[in-house]
Write a structure and sequence with these properties.
This protein has 421 residues and is of the alpha/beta class. The chain folds into two domains: 9-50 and 325-420, Aspartate Aminotransferase, domain 1, CATH 3.90.1150.10; 58-321, Type I PLP-dependent aspartate aminotransferase-like (Major domain) (Aspartate Aminotransferase, domain 2), CATH 3.40.640.10. It is built from 14 helices and 17 strands. It has a seven-stranded mixed beta sheet with strand order 6-12-11-10-9-7-8, with helices on both faces. A hairpin with a 2-residue loop joins strand 2 and strand 3 (36-37). Helix 5 packs parallel to helix 6, helix 8 runs parallel beside helix 9 and helix 12 packs parallel to helix 14 (407-420). The longest helix is centred in the last third of the chain and has 19 residues, at 325-343. The mean pLDDT is 95.
């Protein structure tokens, strides 16, 4: 049954008046256009800045000035254990225990570190299965990891493509390909949400399929984390990594994150590269030979926490924790549905929505595939104070983010797009 949406400003404003998350918008800073907030639909590329970031950054600067090196233990958020402050909140977002997650490094660095642990080709088991059209950094990481082990990417990498000219990859095709390749598969490495189409894959059943043939299952959650509730631990996912500058609103180049299931992260014999910050905290300052991994995903850390980089992450996760991933998802479904409803009323522009209509198969992104005039439309949106995202060759991506976007924002987008027609 479809929701009773209406293409009127009055309807949009009435929905905002009953939105329990509406006030969270006031916690963010919006770019300006002609003296007013822009309509910002680019949270799937870079989220907005939480207002609390400047206060927390100044606090860290004062602690550095006050304590110097003693800030590692005496700062309000001691730097020695800084990564621990994120564990509970990150765990809630991805559905994991606090020892299964860690904030560290950046996305592709984490992907390489985790693949060094989880891609251990041997004998006939050497292939990696991934989706065609993955984000380039995933493709580069997989390609170079395969080459490092002496394999030809054309042989070792299996890419699953959409069938018969479709835009989306069927989950069943991924699962069937895993079973077909069977014991040759060492690793299944999928992007949780495809950056181009916005499709959310069935991570639970893909993981089951990977395990059924003896392979590991890992996911790049850059476009899924903070967007769609997940249950990585219960789904038995082996590993995952993500960035935090999109839906997690932690700033450009913000610290990344990683997840490792406890059955592997808590096994000191499971291979990982050693680094000082991944070593057992109780013996870290004894300066002894012999890497002794600390418990969980944190043992994949290399170096000291980049505290100033992490300040915005701390601020953003605090906002996220107060809102709750459940209520955010509920609003996201309705808000994105409203945007979809409005877009379908525009019939004189040559685009189609290639993001799945099924809300269980998408987050808050909608990808508009243009047959022509796409870049022209995108530039007109920008000139009218609407910030969206252009992806070559012909897609405009828009993300009605539930933390700070409103139903009125969606209606204003519709107004501008209709005006371009």
């Amino acid at each position: 049954m479809s929701l009773p949406y209406e293409a009127t400003l009055e309807y949009a404003q009435s929905e905002d008046q009953t939105d329990i998350l509406y006030s969270f918008r006031e916690r963010f800073l919006f770019p300006q256009h002609d003296g007013r907030d822009v309509s910002y639909f680019c949270g799937n590329s870079l989220g907005l800045q939480p207002k609390s970031v400047s206060y927390l950054m100044d606090k860290e600067l004062r602690d550095w000035a006050r304590y110097g090196v003693e800030g590692h233990f005496n700062a309000a958020y001691p730097w020695f254990s800084y990564h621990h402050f994120f564990a509970d909140r990150l765990g809630k977002i991805v559905g994991a225990g606090k020892d299964e997650v860690v904030a560290m490094n950046s996305l592709t660095v984490n992907l390489h570190l985790l693949m060094l642990s989880f891609y251990r080709p041997e004998g006939k088991r050497y292939k990696i299965l991934m989706e065609a059209g993955a984000f380039p950094s995933d493709q580069y990481a997989v390609e170079t990891q395969v080459r490092m082990h002496g394999y030809d990417p054309e042989d070792a990498i299996i890419e699953i493509t959409p069938q018969n000219g479709a835009h989306l990859i069927e989950d069943a095709d991924i699962i069937n390909a895993i079973k077909e390749v069977g014991e040759s598969v060492a690793l299944v490495m999928i992007g949780g949400v495809n950056y181009y189409t916005g499709q959310f894959f069935d991570l639970e059943n893909i993981t089951k399929a990977a395990h059924s043939v003896g392979a590991y299952a890992g996911f790049d959650l850059a476009h899924a984390v903070g967007n769609i509730p997940m249950h990585l631990h219960d789904w038995n996912v082996d590993f995952a990594c993500w960035c935090s500058y999109k839906y997690l609103n932690s700033g450009p180049g913000a610290v990344g994150g990683a997840y490792v299931h406890e059955r592997l992260g808590n096994d000191p014999k499971f291979f990982r590269l050693g680094g000082w910050w991944g070593n057992d905290e109780k013996t870290r300052f004894k300066m002894q030979k012999g890497f002794v991994p600390q418990k969980g995903a944190a043992s994949w850390q290399m170096s000291n926490a980049p505290v100033f980089n992490m300040v915005a992450h701390n601020a953003a996760l605090d906002v996220f924790d107060k809102a709750g991933i459940g209520p955010l998802r509920e609003k996201s479904i309705k808000l994105t549905g409203y945007m979809e409803f409005l877009l379908k009323k525009i019939t004189n522009l040559p685009f189609e929505i290639i993001t799945p209509a099924d809300t269980t198969k998408r987050g808050c992104q909608l990808s508009l595939l243009f047959a022509e005039r796409g870049r022209e439309v995108f530039d007109m949106l920008t000139k009218n104070g609407v910030i969206a995202d252009w992806r070559e060759p012909n897609v405009i991506r828009i993300a009605p983010v539930p933390l700070y976007n409103t139903f009125e924002d969606c209606y204003r987008f519709y107004e501008v797009l209709a005006g371009i027609v």
